[in-house]
Design goal:
The complex is a heterodimer of chains A (160) and B (389). Chain A is an alpha+beta fold and 160 residues long. Helix content of chain A is 32%, strand content 21%. In chain A, strands 2-3-1-4 form a four-stranded antiparallel beta sheet. In chain A, strands 5-6 form a two-stranded antiparallel ribbon. Chain B starts with 6 loop residues before the first helix and ends with a helix. The chains are: A alpha+beta (160), B alpha/beta (389).
Chain lengths: 160, 389
């Protein structure tokens, strides 16, 4: 049942528990218990909203920063990651295979704010060897959702 | 001037759905639960393969029966999903939708006067196709108390010495009814007893819900040699506009069907055939995803009808529900028209699928959950008002 609940709420976390129960063919209490358990176990880490900021008046700049580091003795990458992800400006941190170590997404109000963070906070860290900052120009799809307005239903209204 | 028209075609009624279609189409803001096709787009990798085939300039005819590659994949698919095997070289024809396959089968198998047993309510094409092929349609009325399954008794009662072909339209449009293995076994006995042939239209096979998967009657002992199995890509892979289906059966019959196809159609669209190869090779996950989505909507809508006190049996197939509206004292057509007028929700009168659909309406849940919710609210308001009068 877990997988089924997750598949639903991953796409729509606002779905009513009653409806979810109907659609899964189980009772409401069972869904509620499962949700609570998953929150406790941190399987469900939050219920966020996907916003297309480009359509608001709010200016935002997002950068994806490739970071090369030297892992710390006895701690590996985790300790370095922690030093990076504790900054609230940092949106996400992934350990990556390939040519660099971390992919860090950063959100700021302006280009300058982001570059300031990179030059004053991120680069000076002892274990950081180099950074490469990629600014996002346009977001087409995020969390499996296409940002463009969904196409209209063009099917014929009645069909056998 | 002489009458230019054939008596046969003039004698055939235009589809009952047509009239309703014209009314609904006038209304821009109607929520339609009257659509007999998926609301999903064809999965991208399948569309992409179609585009790629155009880019590569594959714009020629294929062989009459279809691309060898596609027939091989169809054969593998049926083996994998339904445990029946067909020889791709002699026992499979790729057609322009399941509809063409129905027409081919009837024309290849019927002589004037041969009776075709057609269970109704069912898809609108069987009766006209039987008549066009010179056959005599004999309707078997399916019953709500059997959840619109065909029973052996009903079949036996309809058989005459002229009966030749039985149409098996399951999972069923418009009722959503399915036939379980044990139901099919009973039918198979009667088919053998009376030496009947079968046209098994399994276009909705992939949309079967619940624990047991779809069973094809062709997989039962003694049935394969008397069955034309029809399936296609429209419903399972959301590919209605690509117009692609197929027929499988014994070479003896398929050879004759191929002649008609060869002279009337030549071959199914080439682009669609390439896309379909991709669908069969890499589309299982898409089918499952769509099926799960339909299944959730099915549960939701059934629950809502029951909440409203509208009787409806649980449908385990296709994407239709067939609630009974008899208690409101209207014909199906009146109910559908008034629902559309008052609440701008379109459903299809059961009678569009045969006289036996009187007292029922077909509700399609091939619509987004938010549309289904809105529509259910409107239907609820409509029936509450009827109950007050």
């Amino acid at each position: 049942m877990r997988e089924k609940i997750l598949a639903f709420i991953e796409k729509n976390s606002r779905i009513a528990i009653k409806e979810l129960a109907i659609m899964l063919g189980v009772n409401e209490a069972a869904v509620m218990n499962e949700l609570e358990a998953m929150e406790q176990e941190h399987v469900i880490c939050g219920y966020h909203t996907l916003i297309n900021w480009d359509k608001t008046g709010i200016e935002k700049v997002t950068a994806m920063i490739e970071v090369r580091v030297t892992p710390q003795r006895g701690m590996g990458f985790d300790k370095v990651a922690e030093r990076i992800y504790n900054y609230p400006e940092v949106e996400s941190v992934y350990l990556i295979s390939g040519g660099f170590d971390f992919m860090v997404t950063l959100e700021g109000k302006t280009l300058r704010e982001v570059s300031q963070f990179v030059s004053e906070k991120l680069s000076p860290l002892d274990s950081v060897l180099s950074t490469k900052t990629n600014f996002i120009l346009k977001k087409y799809k995020d969390h499996g959702t296409i940002m463009a307005e969904p196409a209209k239903d063009e099917r014929m209204k009645i069909a056998p | 001037m002489r009458n230019p028209l054939s008596k046969t075609i003039v004698g055939i009624q235009p589809s009952g759905i047509r009239k309703f279609f014209d009314i609904v189409n006038e209304m821009d803001d109607a929520i339609s639960l009257g659509v007999g096709e998926p609301d999903f787009d064809t999965p991208w990798h399948i569309r992409d393969e179609g585009i790629y085939s155009l880019e590569k300039g594959r714009t020629f005819y294929t062989s009459n029966a279809g691309l060898k590659e596609l027939k091989t994949e169809i054969s593998r698919y049926l083996e994998r999903k339904c445990s029946v095997s067909y020889d791709p070289d002699h026992e499979i024809i790729v057609t322009v939708g399941g509809s063409e396959a129905i027409d081919l089968a009837m024309r290849a198998m019927l002589d004037p006067g041969d009776e075709v047993l057609i269970p109704q309510p069912s898809f609108v094409s069987y009766l006209p196709c039987a008549a066009l092929a010179g056959g005599v349609p004999a309707v078997i009325e399916l019953k709500a108390e059997h959840e619109f399954r065909l029973t052996a008794e009903e079949l036996r009662a309809a058989i005459t010495p002229k009966s030749k072909l039985l149409v098996l339209p399951f999972p069923n449009n418009p009722t959503g009814s399915i036939m379980r293995r044990e139901d099919l076994e009973e039918i198979a006995k009667v088919v053998l007893e009376h030496d009947l042939y079968l046209l098994s239209d399994e276009i909705y096979a992939e949309l079967t819900y619940g624990e047991e998967a779809h069973v094809t009657i062709a997989s039962l002992p003694g049935m394969r040699e008397r069955t034309i199995l029809i399936n296609g890509f429209s419903k399972a892979y959301a590919m209605t506009g690509w117009r692609l289906g197929y027929a499988c059966g014994p070479q003896l019959i398929l050879e004759q069907m191929l002649k008609i196809h060869q002279y009337a159609i030549m071959c199914a669209p080439t682009t669609s055939q390439y896309a379909a190869v991709e669908a069969l090779r890499n589309g299982d996950a898409d089918v499952e995803k769509m099926r799960n989505e339909y299944d959730a909507r099915r549960r939701y809508l059934l629950h809502r009808f029951r909440e409203m006190g509208i009787p409806c049996f649980e449908p385990y197939g296709a994407f239709y529900m067939f609630p009974c509206i008899k208690k409101f004292g209207m014909t199906s057509e009146e109910f559908a028209e008034r629902l559309l007028e008052c609440e701008k929700v379109a459903v299809v009168p059961g009678t569009a699928f045969g006289a036996g659909g009187e007292g029922f309406v077909r509700v399609s849940y091939a619509s987004s959950l938010s549309d289904l919710k809105k529509a259910a609210e409107h239907i609820e308001r409509f029936v509450r008002r009827l109950e007050c009068v």
